[in-house]
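tool_call: predict_structure(chain=1)
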Amino acid sequence: MKNQVRKGPLFASALLAFIVALSGSTVMAASYEGRVDGVGNVDVQLLSQGKLKFPRRAMSYGVSGEVTVRFNVDVEGKTSAAVIVEAKPRRMFDRSAMRFVETLQFEPYVSDGSAVEVKDVVMTVAYRLE
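tool_result:
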């Protein structure tokens, strides 16, 4: 039992480092589909994203999952009006996914020479333990 206690923190640290290394690759596509009023479906380009934080509770339980979030991209390329469409498992990753979506920066969509809001962009944020 003493041996397991000594290995526990080392294993957790190694696992956390592995998750952090993977966090940059959780968003796979560089563009996402949304819609612009009067135009229809359009693609918006993802320019940057913050770090995805794997919730401690999920890590301690060894749980992987994903959250699908719908949001708008405003005229400055920032996300707004984010809502969770689906989460597996429910409520385990919701807060982390919403915070992650707040860090996203998109290229503003231009229509007729002016930046316009893109609505109903959908992204799935994956949380994987390997």
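agent: Residues 2-127 form a domain with the TolA/TonB C-terminal domain fold (CATH 3.30.2420.10). Proceeding to next step.
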